[in-house]
Amino acid sequence: MPFFDLKRKLASEIADYFNSPDIKAEALAADAGVPPQLALGHLALPCFKLSKVLKQPSDMIAKSLTEHFSGKGITVTPTGPYANFKWDVGYLYSTTLESIFTKKARYGSDDSGKNKHIVFEYCSPNVAKKLGFQHIRSTLIGNTLANVYDFLGYQTERINFVGDWGSQFARLLAAFETWGRPELVDTTLPGFSAKAAMDHLFEIYVKFHKECDVHPEYLEQASKCLQRLEEHEARATDLWKKIRKISIAAMDETLERMNIRFNHLEGESTYIPEIQKTLKEVKEKAGAKLSEGAWIVEVPGLTTPALVQKKDGTTLYLTRDIAAAEDREKRFHPDKMFYVVAEQQKLHFQLLFGTLKLMGHEWADNCEHVSFGTVLFGTEKMSTREGRVIFLDELLDEAKALALEECTKKNPDLPNKDEVADMVGVGAIIFGNLSSHRKSDIEFKWETVLALDGETGPYVQYSLVRCHSLLEKAKAKGEKSGVVKDVSQYAFAPEEESLILSLAKLRSTLHLAVRDNEPYHLTYYLIDLAKAFNRFYYKLPVLQSNDPTQRELRLGLVEATQTTLTNGLELLGMRAPKEM
RNA sequence: GCGCCUGUAGCUCAGUUGGAUAGAGCAUCAGACUACGAAUCUGAGGGUCAGAGGUUCGAAUCCUCUCAGGCGCACCA
User: Fold this and answer.
1) What are the respective helix, strand and coil percentages of chain A, to the nearest 5?
2) Average pLDDT score over residue span A180-205
3) What is the mean pLDDT of residues A8-37?
4) What pLDDT, on the 0 to 100 scale, is given for residue A31?
5) Mean pLDDT confidence for A175-198
6) How many angstroms separate the Cα of A316 from the Cα of each of A304, A307, A431?
7) How far apart are CA A175 and CA A230, in angstroms?
8) Beta-carbon neighbour count of residue A483 at 10 Å?
9) How many CB atoms lie within 10 A of CB A546?
10) CA A512 – C1' B56 distance (Å)?
11) Of A92, A123, A94, A124, residue with least CA distance to A3
12) Average model confidence (pLDDT) for chain A?
């Protein structure tokens, strides 16, 4: 029985024991923590709160828990105000390994999210721009969370909502009409290259913003472009279609490298045909009013109004987001709608949710902005507009090249080095990105992002390589690997114990990840497990052991580690090589 | 100016929602391959948890103030 269930069971037994309306199993489970050292036990219950409710000193309570719960496969030691619970290691071993060997690739999953429907919006790049390092956070956080929710039985919708409309695009259009080279975006020409097209678009986009500083009239030209688009003028529309198609193809290619797929590709443009209807609805229901020639909605509690229509009559991102949210509600009736978008857009989402609420949409309470910190470049933020950006493709290439170099150094005879380098390089980027709290800002540094040593993706992958190598050798020798039935006489080493304990915790980790919408819990867990395994591996002989029972048991632990690490990496969208 | 966020070892970050002696990785130094893969493992040094008050059995965590940095504040997304 994995840790998650053991903890619940114990908490409800303790609640039953006290039999008081003020002591609830759930609260006990939440209070229980991990003792500072393994020797103290597996689970620590601080008795301070119980002391208040029961009006008894906390150390007395710890002692009474000890007397009542010791035996029955568990040892309880009172340590001052703490009751430290330690399951019989054999019991922990049997239940955990049983579960891993039964559920295999599904180990860690459950159906706690059954009948719940979640909509995720993430990645959401702008058309005509290559994916930059900033997009990686939204994409990876969203992808991992959606994977975890799926694994726990939720039904998920993964929407990539591309910015294919609005002033931003109009500016590109204006830039293209001034400096654009049409032959570069003509997909029918024999020499067409999507990469060259994207590079060209990026170049003129940056140029446009630079020129705007000296020629403000360019902005007027852009405004006209947007009007032409919203009026479906043929020339503008044709160019829009071309650029959109090229961008999406380029984007898919990059996402594919990180094993990321969506089940909905939508764009702001989707909502343009019906946008007048949305505007009318907002004006009527949310009490929009005219201010300085533009239409605004005043959201209670916010000093900045929601701007839904500009004075030139065109719409904004916010307007299209309103239409999109209504559409998603109608299509999916989700229990939650998560927007995985940078912290900087916090106000935007407050305005969006506030406006939806004013429109009478009670479901606006189900919407949540899952924000993340800014990517900094030195002390400046990354900005495509100013040309200060690292493109995702370049980053992945760089990571792969470095991994290849490392691989060649360490394992020159490896046959599929290129493939391995790709898994390791991309893995390092994915893992590294999810290795800190999503809300903290991160500073872009090549040596940090490309690290292959220490608490990194390759560390976890390397642990898996060790597992695989051992299991292959065992297979060749005809060794048995599995769950040893009777371990009552077996003396578990501390390294075995902490490995078992770590193996048991995958599901409780995933529940933490869902509770906080925080993928970090998972990466941290995988490091913890890999570390427990590497210590076990270093200290204890597996195939070298003279005792056949011990060999079988340890091989079983290796296989269980392989399954658990693999499941975890897959949730992150990472692949693991068999050799590296 | 107003609002939000952040400040923990030289660097990058954890700290299980208020609990035990504040922990990891990198870097530095010292060790472990005639052992199942050394992309590994073991150990050492390194801390006024930005600062000052407060709340209580107990604070890195909660409250107040100060300092430093970041982000946002209607016709961008």
Assistant:
1) 60, 15, 30
2) 89
3) 88
4) 86
5) 90
6) 15, 8, 35
7) 18
8) 21
9) 7
10) 29
11) A92
12) 91
A124 neighbors A160 (Cβ within 8 angstroms): yes
Residue from A245, A235, A124 nearest A174 by CA: A235
Tell me the whole-structure pTM to 2 decimals. 0.94
Question: How far apart are alpha carbons A537 and A554 in whole angstroms?
Answer: 10
3-state secondary structure (DSSP) of residue A72 = coil
Tens of pLDDT, residue by residue over A69-91, are 887 789 999 988 899 999 999 99
- pLDDT at residue A387, rounded to an integer: 55
- Which nucleotide has its C1' atom closest to residue A458's CA? B39
Q: What is this model's ipTM?
A: 0.95
The three-state secondary structure class of A292 is coil
Nucleotide nearest to A414 (CA to C1'): B37
Q: Could you give the 3-state DSSP secondary structure of residue A266?
A: strand
- A385 pLDDT band, cuts 50/70/90, is low
Rounded CA-CA distance A202/A128 in Å is 7
**Residue A572 and residue A151 in contact, taking contact as beta carbons nearer than 8 Å:** no
Q: Strand B positions with any atom < 7 Å from protein CB?
A: 2, 4-6, 12-17, 19-21, 23-27, 35-42, 57-58, 69-77
Which residue shows structure tokens 């180990």? A107
How would you write A118-167 as a 3-class SS string? EEEECCCCECCCCCEHHHHHHHHHHHHHHHHHHHCCCEEEEEEEEECCCH
- Give A396 CA → B34 C1' in Å: 41
**Å between CA of A212 and C1' of B14:** 45
- Residue A378: predicted pLDDT: 58
The distance (Å) linking the CA of A440 with the C1' of B47 is 22
Distance, CA of A364 to CA of A140 (rounded, Å): 25
Radius of gyration of chain A (CA): 28
**A86-110 pLDDT per residue, tens:** 999 999 999 999 999 999 999 999 9
| Residue tagged 């590296």 (tokens) | A580
Query: Measured in angstroms, what separates residue A411's CA from nucleotide B37's C1'?
Result: 10
The DSSP annotation for A338-367 comes to EEEEEGGGHHHHHHHHHHHHHTT-GGGGGE
| pLDDT, tens digit (0-9, with 9 covering 90-100), for A335-346 | 999 999 999 999
Residue A179 tokens read as 């400096």
Tokens encoding A67: 């007397």
Q: What is the pLDDT of residues A392-446, one digit of tens each?
A: 898 999 999 999 999 999 999 899 999 999 999 999 999 999 999 998 888 778 8
Please give, one letter per residue, the 3-state secondary structure of A425-467: HHHHHHHHHCCCCCCCCEECCHHHHCCCCCCCHHHHHHHHHHH
Instruction: Dig out the tokens for A76 from the structure.
Output: 């309880």
